[in-house]
Specification:
It contains 7 helices and 3 strands, in the order H-E-H-H-E-E-H-H-H-H. With about 170 residues, it is mostly helical.
C-alpha cells in the first residue's frame, strides 16, 4: 500500500494539515494501516514538488504557522490511478505469529503468557474498533462501514483461536 495514495485519498475528501492527516490515519485506519510523521511529511513535500498537492501556510496566534494541504487536479488523477492499480501483495510481519510458530520450543508458562498477552491486545483492538463502528451506524458509506466490519471479523476470529490455543496450553503437561 502506498502512503502517497492514502494521503491523496484523505485530501480528496478535503484540505488537511499534516497533523490532521496523522490523526485521520490513527482514528480511521489504525487497524490496517499506519504511518509516522517521519513518513507523512516527506511524502507531503514530495507530492508538493510533483504538483499533486498545494500547501497554504495559515498564521496562528502564539503558534507556528499551520500548513494546510489541498489536492490538485493532477493529484486527483494520481489518486484514481492508485484506486485502479492492481492490489499489492499483503505482507504481515507479526512477532506474535513468529513466537507462536516456535511455541513447541518454549515452556508452558511462556506460551500461556504469550497467549494471554495476545488475547488482551486483540480484545482491546476489537473493543476500540467496535467503538468506531458504532459511529458509522446509519452511515451511508457502505464501503467504509464494511472495512470496519472486516476488521471486527478479523479480530473476533483471532480472539476465538487464541482462546482455544490458551485452553490447549493450560492443559499441557
Amino acid at each position: 500500500m502506498k502512503i502517497q495514495g492514502v494521503i491523496l485519498g484523505i485530501l480528496n475528501s478535503g484540505p488537511h494539515s499534516g497533523y490532521e492527516i496523522k490523526r485521520y490515519l490513527e482514528e480511521r485506519f489504525s487497524f490496517f494501516f499506519d504511518a509516522s510523521f517521519g513518513t507523512i511529511y516527506p511524502t507531503l513535500r514530495k507530492m508538493e514538488t510533483e504538483y499533486l498537492i498545494t500547501k497554504e501556510s495559515v498564521k496562528q496566534e502564539g503558534k507556528p504557522d499551520k500548513n494546510i494541504y489541498n489536492i490538485t487536479g493532477s493529484g486527483v488523477d494520481r489518486f484514481q490511478e492508485y484506486l485502479n492499480a492492481p492490489l499489492e501483495k499483503e505482507v504481515s510481519n507479526s512477532d506474535f505469529l513468529m513466537r507462536l510458530y516456535f511455541g513447541e520450543m518454549a515452556t508452558k508458562e511462556t506460551m500461556e503468557t504469550l497467549l494471554r498477552q495476545a488475547l488482551k491486545e486483540n480484545q482491546d483492538l476489537y473493543d476500540k474498533l467496535n467503538e468506531k463502528y458504532e459511529q458509522y451506524e446509519g452511515s451511508p458509506h457502505i464501503f467504509q462501514k464494511s472495512c470496519i466490519e472486516l476488521g471486527l471479523i478479523h479480530y473476533d476470529s483471532f480472539i476465538q483461536k487464541i482462546n482455544s490455543l490458551l485452553t490447549v496450553a493450560e492443559n499441557m503437561e
